[in-house]
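User: Working on a comparison across species. This one is LacI family transcriptional regulator from Cohnella phaseoli. Can you predict its structure so I can line it up against the others?
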Amino acid sequence: MTVTIKDVAKAAGVSPSTVSRVISEHPRISAETSRKVKKIMEELGYHPNLMAKSLVSRTTRTIAVIFPKPAEELLLNFFFYELIRGVLAQLTRAGYDLLMAGGSNEQEELDTVARLVKGGRIDGLILLYSRSSDPIIHFLRKENIPFTLIGRSLDYVDVPSVDNDNVQAAYDATKHLIAQGQKRIGFVSGPTKLAMTQDRMNGYTKALAEAGLPFKQSWVVEGEFLIESGYRAMASIMSQPEPPTALVVIDDVVAFGVLKGLSELGIRVPQDVAIVSFNNIALSELTIPPISSVDVGTYQLGYTASQMVLNLMKDIEITTRQIIPHRLVVRESSLRAESDLY
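Assistant: Here's the predicted structure for LacI family transcriptional regulator from Cohnella phaseoli:
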């Protein structure tokens, strides 16, 4: 037999309205009464109807994470598992659920966000990327929906965001290769519409310019955050008459493809080509050779983003842009003996 709110009220010796207030965490309910009612609820096996509760409170206690690509493609990259782990840790602690959604293109993503917002299915959102002229950010600002961005908005400086200093991170990665004696350094890029890609490209070119080293467009290859992108990039970049002897790679998973492509071409890492990439996922130290990688604090990015959106929903003042520190983890893939250099 289904336990009702009246059963709980009778067993606890309170009115049904008091039980409702306990469920909705009404501030006028004493801690003692709340503990007593919740104990009875647990003993009787009573579970509140969350849909009915949300109709009354006009909240869903659900936060959405919007994927910028189809989930089956995005979740091939281990970076996102660690990011979601950070998001979920904070939301669970605060008593919120996580809804993950996305689309196969920009219009589908916007349609998804509009459906969730207009349908009252979520209380806030976390965006995982920002593009130039991003219609989703424009829509959310217009609808006045609490949201945070993991990354940097190219169009609005006041968007609540948590990010790394990607210019400095790529600068540090490139400077490390320069310190190893490298002079011909290429860049395996992500989609150029993304703010993160643009920032890392700027850090890379800044380091080259400061060192007086050449920048060649033919040494830059754009791709996606997939193993296949890194693999395909090697066929074009290494077939040049004067290919680079070192590569800054946008992402560890892309670097896995780079390693595979170089191996099939008979090119040794790090003896012939040195590699530094980003994110420092767990598998990066298990490759042969282990990959030098910039640790961007992936878990902390997710945790902080969810904390920010929860604070926005409660009208708690936040720092609009929070920067998570990065650090370069040096491994075998970027270390070369002086005698190995061209």
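For your comparison, note: The CA atoms of residues 50 and 60 lie 8 Å apart.

User: Helpful, thanks.
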